[in-house]
Structure formats: C-alpha cells, structure tokens
C-alpha cells in the first residue's frame, strides 16, 4: 500500500534547482515527501495543470514597520507585508532591524521582534542595520548576535543619522570578517548629495523629479567603488544592494576580476521605472521616489542585462 499524503499537487510543471519537469508533488506533515506521476491518495488534491510549482521564494530585502522620520508611517507592517509575500510566492522574508543612535543591537531586535510577534504569515528573519558601531557593539554585541544566528548586517554610506564614515565601515567589515557575518552596503556619496541638495535649494528646485538630479549616477558609482575598495582592504565578501545603473555594475565586475567575492543586487524599481516617472504633476512623482533613484532607459536596460549575465545574484 502506498503512502497517503496530506496534500497532492497534480500535473504541475515542477521547478527544482537543476531541472524542470511535469510531476505530482506529495506533501506529508508539511514537507515534500514524493515527486512522481500518479499520486492521488491524499486528503486534499490541487490541480496545477498548466502552472509552475516552485519552491517558496526568499525576499532578502524587505522594509516593514520601520521608522522613517517624524510623522512618517510605513505602508506595510509585518501583517500586510508578509501576507503580500505569501500571495507572491515568497515563503521567507528578511526584514531590516534598524539600530538607532545610542541603542544596543539587542534593544533594537527586541523592538522589531515585538513588531513581528503574532503577525507573520511567512518565515521572517532580520538583517541588523549598524548605525552606531561603538567598540562595545563591534567587540561584544555583534559577535554574540552572530553566534545567535543574526549573520547579516547592513551599513549606509548616505542619509544623515545612518551613514558611517569610512573608518567605521572598515571596523564593521573587520568584525564581519572575524565572525563570518555578511555585510550589505547602500552605496551613495552623502557629501556629494548634500552639496547638490544645497544647490537645488538655492535655485528653488523642489519638485519630486529633482530627487534624481541630487543623487546622480556618479554619486552611486563612486560610493560603489569605495565600498569595494574598503572590502578589499579588509579582505571580506560584501553585497552591493539596489544597483541602478551600468556604471556601478561595471565596478562590481572589475572587483570580481580582481578576485573579490561580491554579490550584486538590483530591484524591481530599476527594472520597471525611469526618472521620467518622477516628473509628474504635483506630488504624484513622489510616489516613485527611492534611493538610488530610477535612472534613464539605458540604465534600465543595463539592469536587465545584469540579471541575464549574472552580475546580479539577487533581485
């Protein structure tokens, strides 16, 4: 007598890490127990004819219920965000746990775990955002948390209050090297951006479309090169996140040619939007503001190319 399953997904096109083939999927106690044709002894049978049956996705770059400034509330909390993830086929999300200045990492984690408690529809873990890399944080707290399984960090090269100086980034990277953690870097040159914002303010240019011209490609390219250089000095792999253009992609490719272990990421906004989307009437353009900003059509094409050619490991 064959095994009885809790659920069988029938006639779907199953996609694994190595193959794509038509098969039934037998599920028992929440786990895949069989891949074969002709499975039908189950409490529940789902017809997947003409559909792909995929493993649950992992979205490694998610911001949920995160403070963004006075009076600003994120549209998604852990309930709505993880519900969206499940409907989109993602069974795990990694959200960001933002350390605030003067706050210990454990205090920050306690806050974010409380935000997520009882609200998650998929598996959730956290990247630790390091904004205050004191000797105690890097010497004691971070190694202990890596031991506890919080093995990924994020640092910012832009945004006042979040940005780290180069020496702070080096110290954080060195701690990551010693503990086996992986660092993600947001690459934009804050000093250049501050200067350009000042120029725009003097000239009365405040419309959403000017977000793009205060954060030009060169500011992202330079910071990408600097982040890669800092990682080379410490000899540690890093992840360059949300790359928006060919010039930053080329920096990643050159670093790999030098022998560095680098992961690259782009995001849907750079695949679907351009700076023209910011140039709408009133504040409608503000709906498309992100950092780095969407670029031109050539940059959009480059990001698609980066996915096809393996410059980007993540999206």
From TrEMBL:
Its cofactor is Zn(2+). Signal peptide: none annotated. GO terms for molecular function: hydrolase activity, acting on carbon-nitrogen (but not peptide) bonds, in cyclic amides. It holds the Pfam family Amidohydro_1. Residues 52-201 form the Amidohydrolase-related domain. GO terms for cellular component: cytosol. Belongs to the metallo-dependent hydrolases superfamily. Hydantoinase/dihydropyrimidinase family. This is Amidohydrolase-related domain-containing protein. It comes from Ciceribacter selenitireducens ATCC BAA-1503.
